[in-house]
Amino acid sequence: MNAPTPESLERHEPLVDLIIAVHTAERAIERAVGSVLRGTAAPVRVTVVCHGVDPALIEARLGPLADDPRVRLLPFTDGIPSPTGPFNHGLDAATARFTATLGSDDELLSGAIDSWLAVQRRFSADVVIPRVGLAEGPASLRTPPTRPFRARNLDGARDRLAYRTQQLGLVSRERFPDLRLTPGLRTGEDIEYGLKLWFSGARIAFDRRGPAYWGHQDATDRISMSARPVAEEFAFLDAAIDPGWIASLTRAQRVGVAVKMIRTHLMAGLSSRLMSSEITAPDRNALAEIARRLVAVAPEALEIISRRDARILQMIVAGTPNQDTLRAELAIRTDYRRADNLLSASPLRLLHREAPVRFLTALALTP
User: Fold this and answer.
1) Per the domain annotation, does 220 fall within a domain?
2) Domain range for residue 33?
3) What per-residue confidence (pLDDT) applies to 243?
4) Contact, 206 vs 167, CB < 8 A?
5) What is the mean pLDDT of the chain?
6) pLDDT band at residue 227 using 50, 70 and 90 as cut-offs
7) Are strands 98-101 and 170-172 parallel, antiparallel or unpaired?
8) Do 192 and 250 share a structural domain?
9) Does 334 map to a domain?
10) Does 35 share its domain with 172?
11) What single-letter DSSP state applies at residue 7?
């Protein structure tokens, strides 16, 4: 695929501003930037926000790529170990019709942005969701688990969009001029951003078959991977389930948000601690409060989740769970040969879109 020449870029403003935040010169930033420049025919600008790191070090790491007119380096320092500040700084500096983001150690498969733009034009979309794969894992993350084969006019609740926590594809600046990552967080900063995209009523499309966003897990200094107390890990809830915003959602939307957060965030937070050590009293109390807050968003979530997840949730809410029992339940909660993992807590909710049977079916049909 031929990249735009410097002369063509001088005549055309970028159509897409792609933002990369880099926190250290140890990251393979040349892989990320190079994948965009080599694989995109549309007018694109790659903004590398140098977060607390000397731009000269990043320029040296980029080598000849730094001389490409489609690349700009922006210095940014806020003293906060979070990707929020630099990504928001890049969004503030964007002028293109669409924005997108890319991790500093990730890459785009050739033609990804051009494919997203083709989907956008075909469906007049405000947001285009990309496929996401992992170089060191599954070929596809299979999220969001939409209605089978659905690619256009996606609905936040009916297409379970909340399961795509981070939006990495195209976002219209005209439709979302002020939407930013949640400031002040070290992790979970993209959850409020994603939810407000998915439940905005915007026109959302899914590039189900195009080249993927390709994630890498070879960095050893990821900010979001460092251990932290439960209260800090779940600090994103204050913004993500803000009572004023939650009240604006329909009942179906509230259910979608609550079930997703219970099924993924809460269970993952519990499992990551129990499988390596005992849960401390502060973490146990924080988990109980988080569980109560999520159930309050949509009480019927307790009937929709699997029998096993409902038992785990009730033990957490009680505040003094038997940790050996919890460990045993968590160890088999994704073994879908077991009825308690397939059946909803209430038989009347068996065929609810968020209940295990329909959720897992949609997941299997997601590319």
Assistant:
1) no
2) 6-215
3) 96
4) no
5) 92
6) low
7) antiparallel
8) no
9) yes
10) yes
11) H
What is the C-alpha to C-alpha distance for residues 264 and 343, in angstroms, rounded to an integer?
17
State whether 282 and 174 are in the same domain.
Answer: no
8 pLDDT tier (thresholds 50, 70, 90) = very low
Question: What is the Cβ-side half-sphere exposure of residue 238, based on CA atoms within 13 angstroms?
Answer: 10
SS3 assignment, position 247: helix
**pLDDT value at 7 more than 60:** no
Residue located via tokens 């959720």:
359
Do residue 83 and residue 106 come from a single domain?
yes
Residue 160 has pLDDT above 70, yes or no: yes
Task: Name the residue type at position 352.
Answer: H
Q: Is residue 268 part of a domain?
A: yes
Q: Which residues contact 84 (CB under 8 A, 6 or more apart)?
A: 181, 182, 183, 184, 185, 189
Could you give the residue ranges of the DSSP H alpha helices within 52-209?
Answer: 55-62, 84-93, 112-123, 191-198
185 and 261 together in one domain: no
Question: What's the total number of domains in the chain?
Answer: 2
- Cα distances from 207 to residues 123, 178, 274, 288, in angstroms, run 11, 25, 37, 38
* Residue 224 pLDDT exceeds 60: no
Peptide bond into 144 cis (omega under 30): yes
Question: In terms of domains, do 195 and 59 share one?
Answer: yes
178: buried, middle or exposed (CB in 10 Å: 19+, 13-18, 0-12)?
A: exposed
The verdict on residue 222 lying in a domain is no
pLDDT value of position 218: 67
pLDDT band of 139, cuts 50, 70, 90 = low
Query: Is pLDDT above 70 for 5?
Result: no
- For residue 288, the Cα-to-chain-centroid distance in whole angstroms is 24
Query: Using an 8 Å Cβ cutoff, are 70 and 45 in contact?
Result: yes
> What's the CA gap between 300 and 157, in Å, rounded?
15
pTM above 0.85, yes or no: yes
What's the pLDDT score for residue 219? 58
| Residues 23 and 91 grouped into a single domain | yes
pLDDT at 108 (0 to 100):
97
Cβ-contact 85, 91 below 8 angstroms: no
